[in-house]
Amino acid sequence: MTPMHSHAATVAFGVIVLVTCQIQAQQPGRADSRKPAYPKLESQLSDLVERAVASPDEADDLAANAPLSENGAVAVAIHLSTTATDPQAEVLAYLADQQIVPSNIAETLIEAYVPLLALPDLADGDTVARVRLIRP
Predict the structure, then answer these.
(1) d(CA 87, CA 69)
(2) Among 96, 97, 103, 98, which residue's Cα sits nearest to residue 76?
(3) Which of 37, 49, 60, 98 could form a disulfide with 72 if both were Cys (CB 3.0 to 4.6 A apart)?
């Protein structure tokens, strides 16, 4: 093989590898290209909620997989929006409607044990910026 053919073969191989990587990255269902179903929830929490929504009867058992859980609810830090009008009042009203008593309330943060199935509605809208699991 001449140096010219060797270089052409190397370039062709590189192009094949590049195209293969691009195709794999675009395949739906791949863990590395999948977007979270609940973007305001941290990824582990979003996965738990997604599984609970798919199997509501297993929601309490799934909550036990969180770093901190109690009676089928997970400990979360709810980061409030800084652009919404009175987000704290709205989130506290939602929690009260769900019979959830917050364990800590600050100006832009509320901590509470929240059932997995209550999190999609909590995170929906403009009052909540982000919801994270509380880790011990």
Answers:
(1) 25
(2) 103
(3) 60
